[in-house]
Amino acid sequence: MGGNKHCDRLRPHLEAFLHDELKAEIREQMAEHLDVCEECRKECEEMRFLDDVLFSALTMESSPSGLTEEILRRSNLIRENPPERDWVRRDLLPGMLGSGLVSVLTLLLGVILWSGFLELSGILDPLEDAIIPWFLQPVAGLWEVPPDVWESMGAKMVLDALGPWIQWVASLASIGGVGLAIICLMVTVPFWWRTVKATS
Amino acid sequence: MVERELERAKNGDPEAFSGIVRSHQHRVYNLALRMLRDPDEAKDATQDIFIKLHSRLKNFRHSSRLSTWVYRVATNHLLDQLRRAKRERTRRINRPWKEVTHLRNDPRSEDPAVVVNQEEVRQIVGEAVDELPDLYRTVIVLHYQQGLSYREIAEILGVSPRTVGTRIHRAKARLRSRLDPVWRGGGIDGGK
Ligand SMILES: [Zn+2]
Questions:
Q1: For the complex shown, is ipTM > 0.90?
Q2: Domain residue spans in chain A?
């Protein structure tokens, strides 16, 4: 008899011993113990027996005929008719709305700045109504500084000195607008690129 | 060679994917059969598993072996399905144990008269395995039917090999308490 002390210590390793998953040191101790302890040997043989029974009972059956073909047919079907995608993906909606909003706001800011600038330069005063849309008129008014204030600040002098240059810039107003729009779009390109990549 | 086939399958080559199906469907079907206990459901599940594999193929990283990955997807799918079925309580195959307790001969005997009962033993053991909790049944089937090592099973289930050993040990303890009364009588003599 190997004694209870060894039994209690080694029993938990019996399973691993049977499956040859024990470290060499414990494996040797186990083998030695099994030589002298009848109880553990019995336990071990019962476990081995259950192993044998399980291995022989859990054999594989032949799979149904045509299973492979059915799987391939279904996977090909999916390839040929990919599931319809929603026109917009929910998880990307915040990004898309955000970048759209940034575009609109930047464009708006550009329009306001340009209209304010043009107004300040006084070049397009006669065309004001035509150039500044009705909904921007209240905002555009913010740039209208009374002439006497300009005088006192000496700003009129500066403006006069810069007159020809301002005129030249103003003549580029339409091109400037386009440029600004392009810049706005470029700001949002990373957002759109992400969206396109994720949906394609 | 397997690597190249896998790369081709990932790039959408139907021939390469069919190679993967052909080499794994037998194992996946048998795993499903043991887990779901119903041939029709096992067949459907096998198809679903491969459709899943097909759609996830491009996400497969070479950090694990292809077969490990296939087993992992299959096992998760089957355990999910069992969990759902349990929740919905749609069905419960549970043949009464009484039906088969008439077996009296010790299957360990080498007496040819007893060997006739081999098929009966298979059935009884199979049903005892069927009654194990899902997690225990998974490790038992992966080890004894699919012939995988503790390490491979651990990788498939995302647990440590020690945990796999513990589960197998507990599952076997349950099986023994279930099966011992069936072949008691001949006495336990250690198989010889
Ligand atoms: Zn002992």
A1: no
A2: 4-57, 91-199
